[in-house]
Amino acid sequence: MFLLGNIDPLTYKWFYGPNPGAVVRNYGGTERFALKPIELFLPYRTPPWPVLGRLSERYLHTGYFTGEFWAPYLGLVGIFGLVTLAIFAFLRIARRSGAGMGVPTGVYQLGWVFLLSVTGGINSMVAIWGFDLFRATNRYSVVILTVALLFFVRIMALYTRRWPVPARLGLAILILGVGLADQISPKDVTGFAFKCRFGPQILCSSTAPVAERERNISATFCGVSRTAADRQHGRL
């Protein structure tokens, strides 16, 4: 179904070559926007966690390829779920003679996601041969977050099943509060700059080209409207 649903973009380049007028895809983009595990743990803000904010600023200013920075960030709850899953899987493997026995299914799912999406992974190997449509695999962090949260909910339900209802409700509210504080806190972008690695320019924002395009569209629309009004006035 995936191949049938994407047959047009998959075959267009093979038959007609690249279409730079629409969108440009190449191996360089695949490498730059691949998943970098460190970005799962670094938010693009300082409040309310200043330590993580300082680490993020250091990474952004000294990292060579930062990609779509802060987008892969899992959040504190997601990070806790991912770490819990890793520790749980490690203990299961260490306590059993057969490797992999009793390991949560999410471990295999995450293993495949990492193999596919990290820099130099399976997607990069495929892209170097010309199949470079799936560029920003750092966005697969959504899958990592989903697996981590599902496991976290499962493990919390297991270990708190004997707790009284008020205690479980209080814990749920606490986790929700931490997650909301982490995700909806205002972004502090002072001191940050998106560095263009392929030239001397500093890309501080993308508002200028967007505003310019909006002005062009507005001018074109107004010009068409005035032309239509003049024609209508001439008829009258």
Provide the descriptors you would attach to this structure in a database record.
236 residues, mainly alpha, two-stranded antiparallel ribbon
- How many individual helices? 10
Query: Would you identify the regions where 5 or more consecutive residues have pLDDT less than 50?
Result: 193-206
Question: What is the H-and-E element order?
Answer: HHHHHHHHHEEH
- How many domains? The number is 1
Give a description of the structure.
With 236 residues, this protein is mainly α. It has one domain. About 6% of the residues have low confidence. It has ten helices and two strands. It is 60% helix and 2% strand. A two-stranded antiparallel sheet has the order 1-2.
Short structural summary:
With 236 residues, this protein is mainly α. It contains ten helices and two strands. Helix 5 crosses helix 8.
Set out the fold topology.
Blueprint: H1 2-5, H2 7-16, H3 27-32, H4 50-62, H5 75-95, H6 105-117, H7 122-127, H8 141-159, H9 165-184, E1 194-195, E2 202-203, H10 207-235
Antiparallel strand pairs: 1-2
Helix pairs in contact: 5-8, 6-8
